[in-house]
Each structure stands twice: as structure tokens, then as C-alpha cells.
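Escalation from tier 1.

The customer reports that the assembly of two entities below gives different C-alpha cells on two consecutive runs. Tier 1 could not reproduce it. I'm attaching the input and our single run for tier 2 to review.
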Amino acid sequence: MTTTSHSKKPLVQRTDVLRILLFIILLAAVAAGMTFLINHDSALSTFQRGIATITSHVINLFGGRTSVSGNVIQSPGSFAISVVTACTGLFTTGVFIVAVLAFPAGLLAKLIGVFMGATGVFLINLLRLGSLFFVGVHFPDLFDRMHLLVWQSLVIVLALFLWLLWAKVVAHAHRS
Amino acid sequence: MLQKRKRERIALQLALGASVLVILVTLSTFVAAADDCGKNAELWFPADGTSLDSGVSVQEITPSSVCQGETIGITVTVDNMSCGPTTNSQGDPAGFDLMIYYDQYDSAHLIDTLHVPGLDGCEHITHTLTWSTSGIEPGTHSILAWADPHNTVVELNEANNKYTMPTQIVVYPYAPVIDATKTYSDVNGGDVKPDDTIQYTVVITNNGCADQTDNAGHEFSDALPAGLYATGAADASSGTAAVDGETIYWDGVITSGDSVTITFVAKVNSDAEDGQEICNQGHVHWDSNADGTNDADEPTDDPSTAIDDDPTCFTVRISDEPALVGTIDAPTLSEWAQITLSILIVLSFAAMLITRRKEKSAS
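Tier 1 run:
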């Protein structure tokens, strides 16, 4: 007579808990870094100017008539958007990259994830700034709703969707 | 006690020795430099006169812009900053040439040559000449100076004998050069609404050296865009302004350095929509080579923007909602949104880890 004993493994293992803790610590580091950069807004002035210039070009491609002065995108009227550090999508990119780096996956998958995050969030933010500028010029009464409700929700949902897509498809295919 | 005194004495002797050594090294450096300085000349072009006796500006071009054929005054100063006089490789006193060019260091661009018989140490020479710009291509030019181009003088530094004057000169052709701006104002003020009257002001300036004559064809035309219609009112500070259908014309002369102001009035269509942007741009037809034919086109520029030669635009506002004015910043995520994203991504992270663990267990 033989006896077999099944020791059922717990659903969440110690390494998973450690990984989540590591992720939370990295998240805190991103938040701290972002706070520092916002308090030293001039540190990223070239980056801000670059985003303002690209956004202005994109708006002008669609018939807008904007000009850029420093990090300010100016319409022919009196409406202007200033691209400060908080407008650059840096926090969202940082969170995305940290989530990619902390998740168990191969090096190639992580590199793809970092690229996806940086590019994806940049494009989403470009679309956000362009549409907010259009709304600010033509539908000023809708600006706050568009900025606070629509675009903040969209940025969160799109960033999460992009990360889940990476975790499910790319990270799954290139497991560490 | 005795040992302590001994130690102090040794330290004092060491400090004294080190000080003597430093003084000796410094002195020998000075002597070497002075010796070097006395051997060879050192020609250069000082940027200002503060280091010279004169204390005045030493490199000058006046005026910096002229009509083609007019003359320009050029002042160049060469200084021998060394203690040694200008000598050749045998150590004999030697002179040198000072050559002035424009744009390029070649014989085709040579303006003037001055032979300097010699220059003692710490002496300078200031050469002033006038240059006729007849035959010089219109445009922007640089004035270049070259001391001792044939390397007859032995110098401490041979690499600083070429100099580009800090002021560039602009030579204008004997033809008109036209620039035009166009602004608008809503006659009753405030936002532009349907049926509002818009007054346009066009200023055409001739920055060239020749007059813009009243040639065949119109010197200015401006076709009104959809959303606007002409009222028939047009005026000009000189020449003749007229309205034909939905196009405004002007004919006349603009003398060199002068300008003409054209004003005309248009009305916004009754059915103009809220947010509709109405842009238009006039065109100056001018004579770029002074041959009596208008061969060039200069579009008007909206001076309120940084963009050059852009149309003049306004946006129709019907809504009573005040327009957003001033500069605003639109952060990607507010603090609460950042917290929400962080929580959601941590939860998603955990969920994906668990899903993966489950898949692993199942397999």
C-alpha cells in the first residue's frame, strides 16, 4: 500500500509578494522623482520646449495656426497652453516602465515594454495636448471637463490597457 | 619638552624651505616668459581698445548697411602684444602686410593692402580705409583682415593673424525691397460676431534703394475670403485704393525708405458660425530688379504672430461664454489621478502575477 500526500501550493508565493513590494517601492521613487522635477521645473526645459514644438507642428498640420515661444503654444487669439513638467506625461511613462521592469519577463520583453510605454504614452499625451488646444480655442466652456474628466480617465485607461496588453502578450511570450 | 621644541624647529625649517622653493619656481617662470616675450613679436587684432593706449573702439565698420555703390569706412587695428619687435627668421627687423578682404581670403575678394614697415613691442597700428561697394553682390558680407599673410615676421603665435570683423555689412541693390503687414480691428470692439464690421490696415514699406514705381498691373491686391464681404470703402495714404467686387486693389508709387498705408472695411457674413476662423492675406506685386515690371510677390504678414508672412486671422464668437484667455497648463494627471493610476496598476500587477502563477500550476 502506498500513500501519496499532496501539498497544495499557495496562490500567492513569497517571491510574488516581494515582487509587488519592489514594484511599490519603485513607484514611490517615481513619485518622489516627479515631485522633485515639478519643483525644479526648469530642469526639463528642453524637453518641455520639444513637446511644445512637436504639438504645435501637429496642430498646424491639421489647419491650426499656432506658434511656439519657449514651452508655450500660442494661438493667434489670446489662448495659450504652457507645457510644464506635469504636462509631459512623464509620471505615466515612469509608472509604466517601472511596472514593466518589476514584472517577471525576459530582457527582450522588458525592452519592448519600455519602448511601448515611452512611445505609447508620448503619443497619447500628444493627442491629449492637441485636442485640448483645439477645445480651448473653439469650445472654451468644455475645456475643464475635457481636461479633468475625459482626458485624465482616458490616460489612465489607455496606459493600463497598454501595460496589460504587454503583460498578457509580450511578457507571456518571452517569460524569464 | 625638548623633543617638542625640536619638532617645531624642524617644521619651521621645512616651511621656510618650501616657501623659498615656490618663490624660485615662480621667478624662473617669469624670467622664462619675459625672455620668450623679448624674442618674438605677437601680432593680433584686439577686439576693443581697452588694452591699448587709445582706449577707443579699434575694429569698426560704418555704416553697416549701404546701397550698392556707396562707400563704407573700415578701421582695423593690429597690435603687437609682445615685448619684441617684428623681426624675420634671421632676427633682422622686418615689416609685414595687412590685407583686408570681404567674404573670402583670396585675390578676387581683396579690398586693400597696407605694408607696415615694422612694429615695436607693445605698439599698434590703426588702418582706416574707405571701400566702394560698386560691383559687390547685394546681400550680407563679412569683412576679413589678415596680418602678415606671407609669414615674414616670426611670432610667438602664428595662428591668430586672421580676423573676422564683428559687424557684417548689408549691401542693398538699386531696386525696391518690399515688406508688408496687415492687421484687423473690430470696429465696435470685443469679440468678432456675425454682421460685425472689420477694418483692415495694410502697411507696405519699401526698404530698398530704388523707388517702387506705379507699373503695369496693380501693386497690391487682396481677395476677401468666404465669411466676409466688401463694403466698398477703401483708402490709402498715397496712390489709389479701389474695391472691385470682393477684391481690394491699390496702385501707386512707394519711394525708397517710405511706406504707404491702405485701409479697407469688410463685414462678417450674417450666417458666420461660432468658432469659424476667417483668414485672408493681401499680396504686394513689386519690381525686384527695378526694370519697370512687377515681377515679385510679397504676401502680407500678421505682425501679432511670430510666423513670417502669415495670413491675418480672427475667430467668430457667438457664444456668450467668455473665451479662455491667458496661458494655462494642463497636467497629464492631477494628484488624485496619479494615485488612482498607481493603485490600479499595482492591482493589475498583482492580478497578472496570480494569473501567471495559476497558469504555471495548471501546466
